[in-house]
Amino acid sequence: MPTTENKTLDINDVTLTFGGINALSRVNLAVEPGKITAVIGPNGAGKTSILNCVSGFYHPTNGDILFGDHRITKASPHQITKLGIARAFQNIELFSGLSVLDNLMLARHRHLSYGLLAALLFTRKASLQEVQNRDYVEDIIDFMELEAVRKNAVGSLSYGIQKRVEVARALTLGPQLLLLDEPMAGMNIEEKEDMVRFIMDIQKERHITVVLVEHDLGVVMDISDRIYVLDFGQLIGEGAPDEVAQNRKVIEAYIGEG
Predict the structure, then answer these.
(1) Around Cβ 1, how many Cβ atoms within 10 Å?
(2) Most CB atoms within 10 A, among 14, 33, 101, 112?
(3) Domains detected in the chain
């Protein structure tokens, strides 16, 4: 279980420019700890760009990103992960030839503090850490209901189960903040219902703050505490789900699409 800390994610006046085109233009978001915050908008609105900036894959052209007392604007993905931020990707980032268990154990690697010699000799410290990490991974497998496929190669699993393993991999890092990039993309109704349940349990039972990018507006409205709406890289609306649903700009830019 991750350590519960009241860390707010603050995105302040963030601009991201590619070749003179603004993917994000002075965007401001505040993610409260222990909440589910959604970022929505039409295709190309800048939603994934926000996650890329928070997770260190992109560095903003201007503006600041703070996680608690840490300024992470120019931090590397590795540094950001160490601070307690993990991400599940829209395109599955798993080793398809390895088992579910092995994928999760590899993700847990950063929590091992012993060196090469200790590993070769399998010292008491190495043995103890291996057991602790294995127990942690087994807990995630149980939480995400993956027991039946724990020894299966990821590439042999259905798409919906692979997406679940992708979320489990992020949880294995022990995050305080979990970034979910379209976790329900490509899923059928039953798989979506399962993922919704897992996301809510992640928040309520494991006390992890969630930032959710998702196209399924019904899901977003049902489970989010706060919603931010982007269009062409600009923030056009924010608030509780009922407030966003009545925002004229949001209706024109997003809801009006369908």
Answers:
(1) 11
(2) 14
(3) 1-84+176-258 (3.40.50.300), 93-173 (no CATH)
Of the candidates 132, 199, 129, 131, the one whose C-alpha atom is nearest the C-alpha of residue 168 is 199
Label the pairing between strands 36-40 and 209-213.
Answer: parallel
Q: Which amino acid is at 183?
A: P
Map the chain to HEC letters: CCCCCCCCEEEEEEEEEECCEEEEEEEEEEECCCCEEEEECCCCCCHHHHHHHHCCCCCCCEEEEEECCEECCCCCHHHHHHCCEEEECCCCCCCCCCEHHHHHHHHHHHHCCCCHHHHHHCCHHHHHHHHHHHHHHHHHHHHCCCHHHCCCEHHHCCHHHHHHHHHHHHHHCCCCEEEEECCCCCCCHHHHHHHHHHHHHHHHCCCCEEEEECCCHHHHHHHCCEEEEEECCEEEEEECHHHHHCCHHHHHHCHHHC
Tell me: the pLDDT tens digits for 125-174? 656 766 778 888 999 999 999 999 999 999 999 999 999 999 999 999 99
> Taking Cα atoms as reference points, which of 44, 11, 38 lies closest to residue 228?
38
